[in-house]
Amino acid sequence: MIDEKSLPDEKAAITVLNVSRAQLEDINTRHHKFQRQLRRLIEGTTSDPDGVAVLKERCARAIEYFTGQIATQLVAPLREHIDHDRPQEENEALRAPLTEDPRRADGAKSRGCYGARLSQ
Fold first, then answer.
1. Could you tell me if 90 and 96 are in contact, meaning their C-beta atoms sit under 8 angstroms apart?
2. Which of 21, 30, 53, 90 is an S-S bond match for 86, by CB 3.0 to 4.6 Å?
3. What is the C-alpha to C-alpha distance for residues 90 and 6, in angstroms, rounded to an integer?
4. How many Cα neighbours within 13 Å face the side chain of 18?
5. Mind giving me the DSSP string for the chain?
6. pTM of the full predicted structure?
C-alpha cells in the first residue's frame, strides 16, 4: 500500500528513518546495559540495607535519561520532519486533538498523560 504512494520528500523521509533507526539502536544498547546494572542492584538489596535507596535513585535517573533520549533523539526529529512538509494550519489542526482534554466540556488544554506537557 505504501509502495504505491509517492512521498513529498522521499529522500528526507529515508534519511529521518535511517537516523531514527540508528538512534533507536543506541537507546536499545544502553537499555540492555542498564538492565544488567539493574539486576545487580536488585540482587544487592538483599545484603545491603541502603541498596533500596540506591536502586530508587538509579531508576529515577534512568527514567529521566531514557525519557529525554526518546524525546530528543526520536520524537523531535520525526516531528520536525512532519512539520516541515505540512502547512502551519494543517499542523495546528493535527495537534489540537492531542492538546485538548476531551474530559473537559470547555475544551481546556490538557497536561497530557501523567502530567507531561505537549509542546507546540
1. no
2. 90
3. 19
4. 6
5. -GGGSPPTTHHHHHHHHHHHHHHHHHHHHHHHHHHHHHHHHHHHTTT-TTHHHHHHHHHHHHHHHHHHHIIIIIIHHHHHHHHHTS-HHHHHHHHHHHHB-TTSTT-PBP--GGG-----
6. 0.59
CA atoms of 70 and 116, how far apart (whole Å):
14
Going residue by residue through the chain (120 aa), what tens digit of pLDDT does each one get? Answer: 556 666 567 888 888 889 999 999 999 999 999 999 999 999 988 888 888 999 999 999 999 999 999 999 999 888 888 887 666 666 566 555 555 554 454 444 433 444 444 343
Pull the grid cell for residue 98. Answer: 492531542
- Amino acid letter at 12? A
Q: Which three cell numbers stand for residue 7?
A: 512521498
Question: If you compute the radius of gyration of the chain from its CA atoms, what whole number of angstroms results?
Answer: 20
